[in-house]
Amino acid sequence: IMLGKGEVEVATAEDNVVRSTTEPEKVYVIPEYPFPFVRGKYGGLYTKSSDPDTNPQDVMVYEHDFYLVNTIDDPQQGMCGLFRLHLPQDGVKEFLIPLREMIAKDAFGKRVAEQGISTTGKQMEQLMGYANISVKSYQKSQKAAKARTQFGWVDNFTGFVIGERHVTATDTHYSPPSSLTLDLVKSFHMVGTLDKWKSIASMYNRPGSEGLMFALFAGFGSPLVPFSNQRGCVISLYSAEAGTGKTTTLRMINSIFGNPDDLMLIKNDTMNGRINRIGVMNNMATCVDEITNESSETTSDFLYHYMQGRGKIRLQGSYNLERKNTTSWLSHAIVTANEAMEDKLLSKKRNPDGELVRVIEYPCAPIMGISKAESDAAFGLLSKNYGLAGEAYIRHIMANLPEVQNAISRMQLRIDEAAGLVQRERYWSTAATTSMVGGLYARSAGVLDFTDEEFKRVYSWIIALIKQKGQKSATSPAHEAGMALGSFISEFQQGMLVINQGVSRKGNMVEAPIREPRSALCIRYEPDAKLLYVSRTKFRDFCTKSHLGYSSVLKVAAAEGKYVGEKKMRMGKGFHASEPEIALIFNHDESLFGD
Asked: DSSP character for 424?
């Protein structure tokens, strides 16, 4: 009736408190619209006007609620307006519109259409005018908010951003998203109750589940990495069998701060996309599920890139200038696979030591003493109880920061001594230290429940694991260098000529070789002189392909009394005509072929 008269009933302050139709627990307070625009009592955007006779002639601009939340100084997009749109069936959306697009009708129309606003012609012009007037009106009384391009620690460790929440030691306030974080903030809502989440996490407090509990501790330890002296570590859980709890453990880690499924990365995510997500997460752990089918090159690249702690440097389009790089991180990453990462790396390199010291890897075993029904009942609650532990934990850390930093220093000294770690194993030290301290402070924050005895089991387990890994890899570089010659002979066995150095003649007859090559000649062995000649070019290429240092291999061989030197010679001498080449000379006292 009111519309028929040309006048809309304007919403009151009480009308502007709106409950989401898709998220009943979410309540929005809609601001008063700038003149000459008003919000109708039941929603929608209108303009107040009248005809020459002062009769009301209010006009509907848009059917649903659409308004400016605040203005954002975005590092990537420049100054933007953060708008909120309420749709009756699709819920509430927040999105950024750069001011440079708000003065261009086509750009503005495309931007709002992407979010679900369908308008044309005069209505679009009015909507665009309303958006610009809203920004101008807001700027008169409010300063633009500085958008964060990353979550995690801010303002010299006095704040921690979790989605759209800025957490301090005493309170939590709104943190406006940037163009880089906007799509992810919805994954950090708090759902359910902390008590139910704690009951799910307590399923790991069982003998035999120390590896799973350590991974959960790493989720709490990741925000502590900036207080250590390293960049974090990659933790890899593997098992060829299904149902061991690998994916569920990643979901538990994700659920500390947000949605257990939305935050999960998978194998099909591109490497650039993965690195971007890690950079946005910053100090919160990133979980990548099932990297089994990744190539050894991709796995190696990921490990090296992750430990650099920043994204790639790129140039601006059409300009010889670097883009601003906001992708950096100090955190742990947890990955799962059906096979050991070490086996995959060994298929590419004979000595992947540089990568292996950057990862803590162990087999994943299922939780003992629990039936499938019990497991389903417990972990099935995770999709309705998440995002609750992180805020309480971070607030506790900030309230006790000097104590936490001292605890990290003490724990690291204790772990290094117990496991006998050296400098090359510093990543393992950091991962173990921050994870164990993170677990302890998660308990004191009231977000994890476990006994001292259960903690000691996890502590003893990680000490034994990294101690074993340290002993296994302590001599690996020299060992692999020493084995390089044997590996080369095995690979090029068909290209070996076995012939005595003092070939005897009987008239016009020459003594036959003991063994003739069946492919391109690259190895010559003289049993009577106990000397082995190897093509320098072939051996250097072999070392390069195997990622072994050519000079290091020869140095180790010389120290062992095997490598003599090099000389120019004909490898086929006494067998067939061949051109001179540089050969490496080795002493070899054992037979290279069967008796």
From this structure: G
